[in-house]
Amino acid sequence: MRPSSGPIRRWLAELEDLLAIQRAASACAARPPGRRRGSPAWDRLVARVADEGVLSRLAPGGRIPDSLPARALGEVRQRLDELLRRVPAERAPAGPEIGRVLVERGVHVVEGRRNRRFEAHVTRAVHMLEHGWPDGARLVGTRVWRVVPVTAWATVSWSSAREPGVAYINVRSAPTVRLAEDLVHEATHMRIHEIESLHALVVPDAEEDHARSPRFYSPWRREWRPLRGLVHAVCTFTAGARFFERMLAASSATGPLRFGTARRLWLARRMLEERASVALSLRVLARARGAGLLTREGARVVRAAALEHRALATRAGACARELSETAAGRREIAKLERFSRTLSARPVRWSRDHVTET
Question: Are 180 and 129 in contact (CB under 8 A)?
């Protein structure tokens, strides 16, 4: 779909969420009244309305009533009527739309003023991609229709399948090359979300039972994550490694971009770090595939990431040699070695029921 269809994609996602609640509520209502609460159908309905953010409205006083299926169906009917009255119109594409800054105030998030400096920063990041990596610029241009700046100190960037094409990025993301990387990262998530909307990436048993689903070590978050999260990470950070490689190539003596020596050394180190993390995770995902935890489509997505990872091997060797030639580069190598020791100190051992660390 064209970049201008972002509002339409978001409208369709909201419609899909409502229909999912309707299916869950109908399945629950079909059971005998005395056998609804505590059943798998009941649990699915509660999870659906909680994910959609309407559980507090359907469960007044903090208690979930026996009438939850009927209440949920009534909520769906009302919201479907509202949704069908506001079908968005196609608009002319003009680059990503920039929202107002989201500000944390206690437990609430409120919309603040526009940040013109951030808006100009996004424009520069898009131009950098257009000149240095046209394929990356097309990925961002066809996926990201709205960028929302946020102020949460621990947030770099994020996006959600429920808001197709909307990227939330920290207003302090700098320099421009880092913001461009954020845009590529979220656009890759959006591409995987699109695939997931048609085909699951992991077998249902690997995700549905949250308490018993296997966990896998994520070298990026330094924590154990569900399998689906690791598939997303391998794809997005492989795209990140490609981004660093393209920025290096574009800033060569004959390239269209101009980076200083320190920035080029940083780009080289970051590409090597991302490849090391992806290599570790690809080995884990190979085991998961062998154990039957990935669907056919999930295995295909992981294979595509692995092929891209291997395609960067020659460039990675050149980066390592370039870093070894100067004192500044050797300092970057020392950072890379410390990073690699952190990775090797966390061997992964897992079972179908749980993951343990040795």
Answer: yes
What is the pLDDT, as a whole number, of residue 205?
Answer: 61
Strands 348-350 and 223-226: unpaired
344 and 313 housed in the same domain: yes
Residue 279 lies in a domain: yes
343 and 207 in one domain?
A: yes
Contacts of 341 (CB under 8 A, 6+ apart): none
Q: Give, in order, the Cα–Cα distances in Å from 248 to each of 135, 189, 263.
A: 15, 23, 9
Helix (H, G, I), strand (E, B) or coil at 162: coil
| Residue at 192 is within a domain | no
Tell whether 124 and 75 lie within a shared domain. Answer: no
Tokens linked to 90: 């196609």
Domain with 107, as residue range(s), is 95-175
Confirm if 90 and 5 have CB atoms less than 8 A apart.
Answer: yes
Compute CA distances 36 → 19, 210, 213, whole Å.
20, 21, 25
Q: What is the pLDDT of residues 192-249, one digit of tens each?
A: 998 998 889 998 764 545 545 677 777 887 777 788 999 999 999 999 999 999 999 9
> pLDDT tens for residues 96-129?
888 888 887 765 677 888 899 999 999 999 999 9
CA distances from 296 to 129, 136, 201, 289 (A): 33, 26, 8, 9
Indicate the pTM of the whole model: 0.80
Same domain membership, residue 207 and residue 317: yes
